[in-house]
Amino acid sequence: MSRSLAGLSPQSGGDTLAEGIAVKTPGVLTRPIVAELIDEIILVNERQIEWAVGALIEHQRTISEGAGAAGLAAIYSSQERFKNKSVGIVVCGGNIDSRLLGTILNRTLISDGRLVRIRVGISDEPGMLAKIAYSISKHQGNIIEVYHQRLFYNVPAKLAKLDVVIETRGSDHAHNIVTTLRSIGFEVQLLDEQFQSY
Question: What is the pTM of this model?
């Protein structure tokens, strides 16, 4: 629709969460109405739509498919434009696959820093796992999963790597956990791209 109103030829991409608005060509009835009444169309990307679906569930307890959450995604993508204004959006359509919804919710936790994966280098001796678990729990981090690897990583025979998935309150909390582990002598690497600056 955005390209059509700009006088450009229609262009379609690949898979999208917003299937309900992913049409190849705007409808002959809809286009003139949009042209007359709409001032601007804000385009959003997949990550913004994904965030909007997750935010609606978490903050409003509302399940929406990607197309139904596109209005919130537009506000999220243009926050300065809508700052300190009263804004109304239409949220419609709950036609979203439960597995896809679960994936979106987990990815939202990861992007918010509330679910992080760390890799910890340890000496392969008794008590190391307990020491790490204690340090994480002392900061109120919740260990979801631990993978202890001695064989497949390129590490010396007396060393090992632990991959730990931790539930946190956010990126600052995750940073505190990592800092504490490093301060007591562990080599810690965050495996999720958005936290590499830690």
Answer: 0.73
Query: Is there a single domain that holds both residue 23 and residue 94?
Result: yes
C-alpha to C-alpha distance for 183 and 106, rounded to whole angstroms: 29
Q: How confident is the model at residue 150 (pLDDT cuts 50, 70, 90)?
A: low
- Nearest residue to 31 (alpha-carbon basis) of 2, 11, 9: 2
What are 92-103's pLDDT values in tens digits?
888 899 999 999
Identify whether the C-beta of residue 163 lies closer than 8 Å to the C-beta of residue 118.
yes
Pull the structure tokens for residue 9.
Answer: 């030829």
pLDDT in tens, 71-97: 999 999 999 999 999 999 999 888 899
How many CB atoms neighbour CB 149 within 10 A? 12
CATH number at residue 188: 3.30.70.260
Quick one: 101 and 40 in the same domain? yes
Token pair belonging to 81: 């434009």
Are residues 116 and 104 part of one domain?
no
Domain boundary among 67, 82, 108: 108
Confidence of residue 10 (pLDDT cuts 50, 70, 90): confident
Tell me the angle at which helices 70-77 and 46-60 cross, rounded to the nearest 10 degrees.
110
Looking at the structure, do residues 100 and 117 belong to the same domain, yes or no? no
Range of the domain at 146: 112-195
Average of per-residue pLDDT values in the chain: 88
Chain-centre distance for alpha carbon 126:
36
